Amino acid sequence: METRNNGCLGSIQYLKSFLVELNIFRSNSTDENVVRIEKWSTRFYVLILSVSIVILSWYNALHTERRQVEIKSPSMNTYIELQNKTGVSDIMCPCAQISSLYGSFVELIPTYHEICSSIFISQQWIEVLFDNITSMHYILDFRATASLQFQVLRELCSLSQLTINNMISNFFDEEFICNYLLSEDIFNEQIQAVVDNLQAEIKTDFLFSFSFVRSLIYGNQMWSAIQTNFILLTYTFDGVNWRVGVGTIIYPPQSSYPNGCICDSTSLCPAPTGYYDDALLDTDFGFVEQLNSSFLFQNWFVNCWPLESLLSSSLEQNFLTNQSVLNIIAMHLDKTSSFLNLTLLASLNESMNINQNNTLRDISQSTMFLKKLSTNITYSQYFTQCQPKSCLYTLDRRVTFLYMFTTLCGLFGGLSVVLRLIIPYVVAFFFQRSDQRSLHDTLATSSKLNKNIIALI
Asked: What is the model's pTM?
């Protein structure tokens, strides 16, 4: 054990002696100052070179190498693999065809409100509601207005579908222009943004047509064929000569208009519809008397014009979702059609998912009877349309050990030469300055001592 300790101490002493006496700038000079400068130059040289090598090694270990790679005629799978590959960035794939039709890679599927595909807008249902004395019924009676209301509903659904289909068709004929291939995520985001803008344009176009029709009807005070706003009056003063005039319908008082309502001053005079005891209208007067009803529909109204009547009504809690009420309609129509004996809407109430305050005006203006516009984007078709002939990308990767070794060897050679040239002169300069300062201090001390001696003499 003691021998081993002695051996370790001997090795340490030898290493210490070696470092102290190390001199790579040896000039075989016997001058002590020169030898001292050479040894200190060696120490600074080794220290600075070692620190520099460590710093350069750490920098190279963290440094990434960037190089540009080109792939000819890449497939879509190759392009996707490049996107998912670690270290790959700035993928640029110029398109051989910079423009392509939206219809070649986008499919838009509109889903309309259930009412627009229901039996209530069919010609058969409209014909069931109409008979030869329809126009002679009391105007608040369901039989007087229902047939025309559902015709209007059918036309609104048709207007919505026509507007949406035309806008979609025009969209498919428009071109998507891009010089470079877009990644799938960015491409989907851009197409979805275009589709969202298309839906806004569809709504604007529909509401313009819708508002124009309503304004045209009311502004021109058009006469309703079922006389819900104006009534044709025939009268005579002598029993021989008859005259024809127009009377304004005055709706009976309601909570919103306690004094009655006339259609020449407003288009909104909603009154609940139903079945009334006195079914026929007295055409000698324009005033609508409040007759006794045998049955009133919930959320279904009569208004000045058939369009306004429909828009004032709601789809909630009325005959549209109640088979028993449909049976009452069949009874009052006095028709034994197998059409009415069907279970028309067994589960419509659940499938419609309608809010209580959701009137047909709300549905037409907010959704245009469109529940959803599904978007199917086929990225592979877009890639085929783009037809990239090549892809350039930047590859970031860690440097290899061989690259690091050769770099350090080159740096070591240049750095060592520079340090061997500079360090001896720098060390010599500092030692010279240090010796001059020491000599100056010595002379100053000696001069002061001489002065003290002289003073004592």
From this structure: 0.65
